[in-house]
Design goal:
This protein has helices at about 5-15, 30-40, 45-55, 60-65, 70-75, 85-90, 120-130, 150-170, 190-210, 235-250, 270-280, 295-305, 310-330, and strands at about 20-25, 65-70, 95-100, 105, 115, 135-145, 175-180, 220, 260, 285-290. With about 325 residues, it is α/β, with parallel strands linked by helices. Bound molecules: 2-O-methyl-1,6-di-O-phosphono-D-mannitol.
Length: about 325
């Protein structure tokens, strides 16, 4: 096998190898600012750096995390000891990943829907990120979900962009995390989420294949199949886990080495419980996690910008990452 292809495959496999997961700490500055303000921290580039430094230097992080996804700003920052962030990732034993999309923007003629942007100049950006040590990348399509949405238009344009991104990423020797997220903040039930997720996955994989993406060199980061947060009928953890594994088994090609779920706003313990319930079911790919909020929310609240609570924040992160690594093994 060609060396380039072999490296993509082995990196993708390393990202999802049991029991570790991927820490999503790639909030764009705007999102991060809102989260910092919520816990009373003045949102500055230094505060965003300090917060990411706390997460990344958590002792023993590499025992339960294989990689960390970073925003462009973080990737370019130095830690307080002068190390670059990619260097610090190497020292910590976690693969550095970079979020390369530039965000979800309103989609023309589709009220309430978005298309994720960031393709302009992406080949050159990938060349630069590869030189600076990025092992993997991430692009997220955010799709509203209700009885009518996502529209065919929103699914097609976002799948097209995911395909273009993934091909450029692999061309640069960087493993693409492909993240088609159906949002869970509606009143849809489990069956509607299952039906829409199946459709989105079909279109996304059609686009990846059409654009020459090597499916053995990607990691898929989908939503779990859950009912919307406002749905009156909430399924049990076991029902959601069974629906998720069933839909993915029917719509995700077996060549994909692993699936690393997003948490989507689920409470941390619930996301972990879903992961544990899925681990007991049989699936053709690794089932892992790439949570953002479900890993970092407790740490952010405990730290709240206080240097004296740095270690407490790290301990809170450690609890959640280890719990999810343990869930994978259950
Ligand atoms: C960490 O948040 C990521 C970036 O968000 P913005 O670009 O909107 O600021 C986000 O893509 C995240 O990686 C995924 O949604 C998974 O995070 P959750 O919290 O859903 O597990």
């Amino acid at each position: 096998m060609h060396e380039h292809t072999e490296r993509l495959h082995s990196t993708a496999q390393a990202m999802v190898a049991p029991p570790r997961g991927i820490l999503a700490a790639d909030e764009s500055p705007g999102t991060m600012n809102k989260r910092l303000e919520k816990v009373g921290v003045e949102p500055t580039p230094e505060a965003r750096r300090d917060y990411r430094e706390m997460l990344l230097t958590t002792p023993g992080l590499s025992e339960s995390a294989s990689g960390i996804i970073l925003a462009d700003e973080t990737f370019n920052q130095e830690l307080s000891d002068g190390r670059t962030v990619p260097e610090a990732c190497k020292d910590a034993g976690v693969l550095p990943g970079i979020k390369v999309d530039t965000g979800a923007k309103p989609l023309a003629f589709s009220p309430g829907e978005t298309v994720t942007e960031g393709l302009d100049g992406l080949r050159d950006r990938f060349t630069d990120y590869a030189k600076r040590g990025a092992a993997f990348a991430k692009w997220r399509a955010a799709l509203a979900l209700d009885a009518e949405l996502p529209s065919e238009r929103a699914v097609l344009v976002n799948a097209h962009a995911l395909g273009r991104y993934a091909a450029l990423s692999q061309e640069a020797g960087i493993v693409p995390i492909v993240e088609p997220e159906l949002l869970m903040d509606g009143d849809h039930d489990l069956d509607r989420c299952a039906e829409a997720t199946a459709y989105v996955l079909d279109v996304v994989f059609m686009s990846l294949v059409a654009q020459g993406v090597d499916l053995a060199g990607i990691v898929l980061k989908p939503n779990m199949i859950v009912a919307g947060a406002k749905c009156a009928t909430q399924p049990s953890v076991e029902e959601a886990a069974a629906a998720t594994v069933r839909v993915l088994s029917e719509h995700v090609p077996k060549e994909v080495p692993g699936i690393a779920f997003l948490s989507g706003g689920q409470p941390p313990e619930q996301a972990t419980a879903h992961l544990a319930a899925m681990a007991s079911l049989s699936a053709p790919w690794e089932l892992s996690f790439s949570f953002g909020r479900a890993l970092v929310d407790p740490a952010l609240k405990v730290w709240a910008g206080d240097p004296d609570r740095w270690k407490d924040g790290q301990a809170a992160l450690d609890v959640r990452v280890r719990a999810n690594a343990a869930a994978r093994a259950s």
